[in-house]
Amino acid sequence: MRVYVPLTIAGLAAAHRAGELGPGPLTAYAVTPALREWYVSDDIEELEYAALNRAASASLRLIAGDPQAARRRVVVAVDVPDGAAVADPDHILDASSLGEVTVAGAVRLTDAAAVHVDSDDADKDVTAAAAALGAADLGDDDAQFTVDGAEDHELLWFGVQEIPGLIG
């Protein structure tokens, strides 16, 4: 099963040093039954893209919670054994947790399929979105518009071997 683990640049650097994402439990995003129902698609690529975007939103939350974090969203796509990622049944109907899963233990970075990171030109919009996130959560439409501005940036794809260049 492919899961998408939200991180920051510092989190990616720590994972690179340790050789793994962890320790567990890890919050990740995947194609869950609830995400399938919400997205209303049978196209696995579209569903995985939706899960990736959910993880990018979670990465933005990590950035917003850490004033020292680089203003670039980071998501690591990892393949885990079926059953290793479990959705919380108490959150199935919670729109904010669609696609959210928990991976019980650490995951080797060598099991990563790719790393997705914002380009440098997203910095301004990600910075503004991180600052506006709290107000957007409270229903401020202007703040939500600012958060959506970060989501307009596509994450770039990088191979795992390119991590040193991303964190350096």
In words, what does this structure look like?
The structure is a single chain. The chain has 168 residues and is an alpha+beta fold. The protein has six helices and nine strands, in the order βαββααβββββααβα. The strands form three sheets. Strands 1-4-8-9 form a four-stranded antiparallel beta sheet. Strands 3-6-5 form a three-stranded antiparallel beta sheet. A two-stranded antiparallel ribbon has the order 2-7.
Topology diagram in text:
Layout (H helix, E strand, L loop, with lengths): L1 E6 L1 H10 L1 E2 L4 E4 L3 H7 L4 H21 L9 E6 L5 E2 L13 E4 L3 E2 L3 E6 L5 H15 L3 H11 L4 E3 L4 H5 L1
Antiparallel strand pairs: 1-4, 2-7, 3-6, 4-8, 5-6, 8-9
Helix pairs in contact: 3-4, 4-5
Sum up the structure in keywords.
alpha+beta, three-stranded antiparallel sheet, 6 helices, 9 strands, 21% strand, globular
In a few lines, what is going on in this structure?
It is built from 6 helices and 9 strands. The protein is an alpha+beta fold and 168 residues long.
